[in-house]
Amino acid sequence: MRRSARPARDELRPEYDFSALKGGVRGKYHKRAIAGSNLVLLDPDVARAFPDAKTVNRTLRRVAGLTNKKATSSSR
Asked: For 70, what's the count of Cα atoms within 13 Å in the CB-facing half-sphere?
């Protein structure tokens, strides 16, 4: 015996007024958003090692600095 389909629950709050959202343009800020962005997806184990973006950037700058120093000293 099949169960009858349950009606979908409306989980939105009654105070949400979607009539004010009319006229929106999809992708309006897309080009502007990606122009100055370089998004990188970290694996979960790597993400756990860094609490925030500032820590990631500081660590990557140090690694990049060490790599650049090593490359210049080995080319002499």
From this structure: 6
| Pairwise CA distance, residues 54 & 61, whole Å | 11
Q: How far apart are CA 67 and CA 69, in angstroms?
A: 6
Query: 56 with 50: CB under 8 angstroms?
Result: yes
Outline where the chain has alpha helix (H). 30-35, 44-49, 53-74
Q: What is the pTM of this model?
A: 0.44
Using CA of residue 43, residue 44, residue 50, residue 54, what is the dihedral sign?
positive
Q: How far apart are CA 19 and CA 40, in angstroms?
A: 36
As a whole number, mean pLDDT of residues 5-27 equals 79
Dump pLDDT digits (tens) for 23-61: 788 888 888 888 877 888 899 999 999 999 899 999 999
For residue 34, give the H/E element and its range.
Answer: helix 30-35
